[in-house]
Design brief:
By secondary structure, the protein is an alpha/beta fold. Helix content is about 35%, strand content about 20%. The chain is built from 23 helices and 32 strands. Strands 6, 7, 8, 9, 10, 11, 12, 13, 14, 15, 16 and 17 form a twelve-stranded mixed β-sheet that branches. Strands 29-30-26-25-24-31-32 form a seven-stranded mixed β-sheet, sandwiched between helices. Helix 15 packs across helix 20. The longest helix is centred in the last third of the chain and has 27 residues, at about 680-705. The chain is globular. Bound molecules: zinc ion (3 copies). One zinc ion binds near residues 113, 115, 116 and 138.
Length: about 775
């Protein structure tokens, strides 16, 4: 090699999840490895690299920049510009630079990595048993960020001055803790303590974890401050402890999640295939709904009436260390009063959880953004669907199939999330909850303004549901100087499914859920749409029934069964109800008869959720609803999955709209019930019948439109039996089927759908 290679210089702009994930030290090491000079720097838009060297080494550097990026990084784009060589020397990591318009994506919280886990278990390590150990590859992110760019002074770790040893690790590009913003050690970092109900300190540091573990062994309930909020913890194998927790929380039957010490313990409680195992171990550490082992020893009170059990592994050192002293399986339920948002400050916990807990395991690292645990459900050996998208996933952006100016989607009323979209990326908020309490609504407003600050966006376009009484709709309408775009609820469902699959449509959309506002002022909820992102036509729907007493019927599935029986048997429906053992008091009977015959206070609905409620009540699978979705869930759980039988039902055309004859399905199920056919068989045949009817409707719409793609969305598709059977049947008939994989099929993704519908309409206007 005698010839001297020329020197070239490039300016690189790297966008994506590239901050707080060890990207700069990776660039530093890679540059030095290839003998390149220059610098790397975080800006509020991206990571900027100025780099100089021979063409060959620059090419090698660029080749490895994307392919070998750190595990937590996600490179969206690398834009390179040529620059004049300047004879740069050495390679440096420069301080962050502020820019007015942020595009840099904020990283999500990450479960403790193996190396940190090993350190806290090693008596020779200076972080032995330290519950706030983290590094560049793991630890809190989103939940501690006050503002961008993501640097320590902008997090709730700002109050903790680093000790010299932590400082030197933090400043050493060769160290695993180089610029690990929340890094800490027992000398300089946050501390944990156990507190009694009157504020007395019971124990500190390692002693606090041991004492908390002891209380849990004794069947007590401990409020534990975690990453995104408080949990209430209790021994999952103790009938008495779990029953007491239910009593105090006023939660009758809604399943609790169980955090287990390790994978072996998870296997004792649930059946784990590869899909479940990988989800449990993933860096997001969600709650995984696994099949429950009846001999696993979990209290019958943990998930009554449910074949599934929500399991999760410890995701912070504090949890890991707690398990050294506590029972191996702990119920870990959100630390809140029913229907209120998650408690996340020490003060809030002390006041709001004092009637629920026996002691508080507290620490002094503030939570800036509360964030619940995420929930995923494996629905077949091949795939799982998100049920609740929060910690670990938020605020990872979702790539959208179209570009737009900044748009805010304010979401639905239940299972609310909101969504900020711009430049082809959608950032979905964490699960906020049901916006029907003042506390949740306040939290919602705060969360929106924090998100807008983090994303440095003040969207001029706001998309909302058509329901005039949703608090999210009212919030949107009270905003000033914004352009409002109203989006029909089920159109938003289908648009969300299209968008997360990278599609713009058109498609056949099957939207099945509890309730959504129809433009004809009836209550929609079992809809076949022909839709693209910009618009839709209602091609079909389930048979209408009256909702006797409106919302009251939603809470009382027996009334829905009565409504179906009334549609089928007319005024003499009481005889049929009697044969099903559906007892109504004379007073109830009188009221029902009036509501059902006169339509008084009985809005008509095509809701699929209500059909499931009615069948669950008719079969006596669930006649008292104590939480949203309970009858449908228990009906699915009751079904014999080996049964292939079904009830025939037909389609008819009414004013050019298909009506799916769900009345016949209900009638046959009720008849088989009073004939004494086994309930698991009827429950399965009901599912199979609905699958056939929906597939037949899709085939009819395909004949009319030539469309061959079906998108499935809506909360009813959390039902694994319905989802997998319908998907299989449609695929066997040559359809391409889109389902939710990144966002929940329930109302948690309505905000995403709203933003893409608004984006598509704006695009259409511009031509
Ligand atoms: Zn780590
Ligand atoms: Zn330190
Ligand atoms: Zn919905």
């Amino acid at each position: 090699m005698t010839s001297v290679e020329p020197i070239i210089r490039k300016r690189l702009l790297v966008t994506g999840v590239v901050q707080g994930v060890g990207f700069r030290p990776f660039v530093y090491r890679l540059a030095r490895l290839h003998g390149l000079a220059g610098w790397v720097c975080n800006t509020s838009r991206c990571v900027e690299i100025d780099i100089e060297g021979t063409p060959a080494s620059l090419a090698a550097f660029l080749g490895r920049l994307e392919t070998e990026a750190p595990a937590l990084a996600r490179v969206e784009s690398v834009v390179a510009q040529d620059a004049e060589p300047a004879g740069l020397e050495g390679f440096a990591i420069l301080e962050s630079r502020h820019l007015a318009d942020t595009q840099a994506l904020i990283p999500a919280d990450v479960a403790t990595c193996d190396e940190c886990f090993a350190e806290i278990q090693d008596p020779c390590d200076r972080r032995f048993r330290y519950p706030f150990t983290n590094c560049t590859n793991c630890g809190p992110r989103f939940t501690i960020i006050r503002q961008v760019p993501y640097d320590r002074p902008h997090t709730t770790m700002a109050d903790f001055e680093m000790c010299p040893r932590c400082r030197s690790e933090y400043e050493d590009p060769e160290d695993r803790r180089f610029h690990a913003e929340p890094t800490a050690c027992p000398v300089c970092g946050p501390r944990v303590w156990l507190e009694g109900l009157s504020g007395e300190r019971l124990a500190g540091d390692a002693g606090a974890l041991e004492a908390a573990g002891g209380l849990l062994q004794d069947g007590k309930i401990v409020a534990v401050k975690g990453l995104g909020g408080f949990h209430l913890a209790a021994d999952a194998r103790s009938e008495a402890a779990v029953a007491e927790l239910r009593r105090r929380k006023g939660r009758v039957a809604k399943p609790f999640a169980v955090m287990v010490r390790d994978l072996a313990e998870a296997r004792r409680l649930g059946v784990l295939g590869d899909l479940e195992k990988n989800a449990l171990l993933s860096r997001e550490r969600p709650i995984v709904l696994a099949q429950k082992r009846e001999d696993g020893g979990a209290s019958s009170q943990v998930a009554p009436g449910n074949r599934c059990l929500g399991l999760l592994l410890p995701y912070t050192p504090l949890h890991l260390l707690l398990f050294e002293h506590s029972p191996g399986a702990l119920v870990m339920t959100s630390g809140n009063l029913s229907e209120e948002p998650l408690a996340f400050t020490n003060q809030e916990a002390r006041s709001k959880l004092r009637t629920l807990a026996d002691a508080f395991l507290l620490h002094d690292r503030d939570i800036q953004v509360p964030c619940d645990d995420s929930v995923v459900r494996p629905v077949s050996p091949d795939f799982l669907i998100p049920i609740r998208r929060a910690r670990g996933f938020v605020p990872d952006a979702i790539r959208l199939p179209l570009d737009s100016e900044p748009i805010l989607g304010v979401g639905a009323e239940q299972k609310n999330t909101f969504c900020l979209a711009a430049r082809g990326l959608g950032v979905l908020s964490q699960h906020i909850g049901d916006l029907d309490t003042v506390e949740t609504f306040d939290y919602y407003r705060l969360a929106i303004s924090h998100f807008q600050e983090l994303c440095r966006q003040n969207p001029g376009v706001v998309a909302h549901d058509l329901h005039p009484h949703y608090l999210s709709t009212r919030y949107a309408r009270e905003l000033e100087e914004v352009r409002l775009v109203g989006v029909q609820h089920h159109h938003a469902h289908i648009a969300a499914c299209l968008a997360e699959n990278g599609r713009t449509g058109p498609c056949i959309g099957v939207a099945l859920d509890g309730t959504g506002y129809g433009p004809d002022e009836t209550v929609w909820g079992g809809e076949i749409l022909v839709a693209d992102l910009a618009g839709y036509i209602r091609a079909g729907h389930l048979e209408y029934i009256p909702l006797p007493g409106g919302e009251a019927a939603v809470r009382d599935p027996r009334r829905l069964a009565a409504a179906y029986l009334h549609r089928i048997y007319g005024p003499n429906f009481h005889a049929a109800a009697g044969r099903l053992g559906l007892d109504f008091t004379p007073l109830e009977r009188g009221i029902l008869a009036r509501q059902l015959s006169g339509g008084l206070d009985s809005p008509p609905t095509s809701s699929a959720g209500r059909l499931f409620d009615a069948v669950a009540a008719a079969l006596n699978v669930c006649r008292v609803r104590t939480y949203e979705g309970q009858p449908a869930l228990e009906l699915e759980m009751a079904a014999d999955e080996t049964e292939a039988g079904f009830y025939p039902a037909s389609l008819r055309l009414e004013q050019e709209t298909l009506v799916l004859d769900t009345l016949s399905i209900f009638r046959r199920a009720a008849e088989e019930c009073w004939q004494g056919v086994d309930i698991p068989l009827i429950a399965a045949r009901f599912h199979n019948s609905l699958v056939r009817l929906l597939a037949a409707a899709c085939e009819t719409v395909r004949e009319q439109t030539g469309l061959n793609t079906v998108a499935l969305s809506g909360g009813v598709f959390q039902n694994a039996l319905l989802l997998t059977r319908l998907k299989e049947r449609l695929e066997s008939r040559g359809f391409e089927v889109l389902i939710h994989r990144l966002t929940p099929p329930n109302d948690g993704s309505i905000s995403l759908g709203q933003t893409v519908v608004a984006a598509a309409r704006l695009q259409q206007e511009r031509g």
